[in-house]
Design goal:
- By secondary structure, this protein is α/β, with parallel strands linked by helices.
- It has 2 domains: 150 residues, Rossmann fold, CATH 3.40.50; 193 residues, 2-Layer Sandwich (Dihydrodipicolinate Reductase, domain 2), CATH 3.30.360.
- Helix content is 33%, strand content 25%.
- The strands form 3 sheets. A 9-stranded mixed sheet has the order 16-15-14-13-6-12-11-8-17. A 5-stranded parallel sheet has the order 2-1-3-4-5, sandwiched between helices. Strands 7-9-10 form a 3-stranded mixed sheet, with no helix packed on it.
- Helix 4 packs parallel to helix 5.
- The two termini are 38 Å apart.
- The relative contact order is 0.16.
Length: 371
């Protein structure tokens, strides 16, 4: 059984803008009794050294291969863009490491399936970064639904905003956001914000059994604000899904590319025989934004706030992004030390990729897909 602090090597840190810099590093620093950051690796030694100096990390590796091979690294965190996930995760598992890989796990279902199979064969704990189910509001929502607040679930509806596009079909900069416009890169509104939302939805309401869908690219170009370039866009900016949950309750989901005009970017309602609950937030990136719950049941005619008990928040970082990532790392440490399975694993990522694959096939073929 592991008793020492777990040593984490992080691949992909760009101070000031990357997800690892904003969430993983402060999360691990807040969990210093459990974790050590062994070092970071980027595409070059110079880049890693600059990032290490700015984030207060003691060690910079020459490259990802050196980090993966280091004997003082127990967990490899893969927090780069989606296309390199496959090779980095395979190398880390092959080196006998445990892995925390950000979502999406792979560029498509086939890559995810291969990584999950390799983790099983090597006995590696492979955790995927679907943090939304660890948000206090989603944890409490799961409790409320299981405890009968809404009674039997009749249906659920989600309308949200997300993706790379901002107002007027723009993106802030080419380096960070440009690759999100190309569907071939596997990092689209469908795979990222819709994927995270589906991870939360299925954690609360169970699996999806059937899917019909429409995918549309209504803005075929995007203007880059920092360079003035106009780039082609092939990723869908409209995702419409109708489906059925395992309990036969209908599911409706519509994600729109861009940002809402009024800052109200998420509406999720669960309708039941005894009551209804609504989840709201500033965008459909449920793992990144502050969520709020309102509910109404029995003879009530208005929705009232449902305050999350303090026990769901105690001792966690207050920042939403940092807190949710810290919860996943804490669960991962518990799994490694006690042989439990409380984290989202690569097999769970495959199940999520399977839903997204069904959405794509349903939209392409204009037919209903059974899962």
């Amino acid at each position: 059984m592991l008793v020492q602090r777990l040593r984490v090597g992080i691949i992909g840190v760009q101070p000031g803008r990357s997800w690892a810099a904003r969430s993983h590093i402060p999360a691990l620093q807040a969990l210093s009794d459990t974790f050590d950051i062994a070092g970071i690796a980027n595409t070059s030694r110079a880049s890693a050294e600059a990032a290490a100096a700015e984030t207060g990390i003691a060690r910079a590796f020459d490259n990802a291969a050196e980090l993966i091979a280091a004997p003082d690294v127990d967990i490899v965190t893969v927090a780069v863009k989606v296309p390199p996930h496959f090779e980095l995760v395979k190398a880390a598992i092959g080196a006998g490491k445990h892995v925390y890989c950000e979502w999406p796990l792979g560029n498509g279902m086939a890559e995810a399936e291969e990584m999950a199979a390799l983790a099983r064969a090597k006995g590696s704990v492979g955790v995927v970064g679907t943090q939304a189910p660890f948000a206090p509001e989603i944890q409490y929502l799961k409790h409320l639904v299981a405890d009968g607040f809404v009674g039997d679930v009749l249906s659920t509806t989600i309308v949200a905003w997300g993706g790379a596009l901002q107002g007027g079909g723009t993106i802030p900069d080419k380096k960070t956001y440009g690759y999100l416009l190309d569907r071939a890169n596997g990092a689209t509104m469908l795979t990222i914000p819709v994927g995270h939302t589906l991870s939360a939805l299925t954690s609360v309401l169970g699996t999806v059994s059937a899917i019909s869908a429409v995918l549309a690219t209504r803005r075929p170009t995007a203007r880059v604000l920092d360079t003035g370039e106009v780039l082609p866009a092939t990723a869908p900016d409209q995702v419409l899904v109708s489906g059925v949950l395992a309990n036969d309750a209908p599911l409706s989901l519509h994600f729109r590319g861009g940002a809402p005009r009024d800052g109200d970017g998420l509406f999720w309602e669960i309708n039941g025989t005894e009551g209804d609950i609504r989840v709201s937030g500033s965008s459909g990136q449920m793992q990144m934004v502050q969520l709020s719950l309102r509910g109404s049941r029995a003879e009530e005619k208005v929705f009232r706030p449902l305050e999350v008990p303090e026990s769901y928040r105690n001792s966690w970082p207050e920042d939403v992004e940092v807190g949710n990532v810290a919860r996943v790392y804490t669960a991962m440490a518990h799994d490694l030390r006690h042989g439990t399975r409380t984290t989202p694993r690569f097999e769970d990522a495959v199940a999520l990729h399977r839903i997204i694959d069904a959405i794509e096939r349903a939209a392409e073929g204009g037919r209903r897909i059974l899962l």
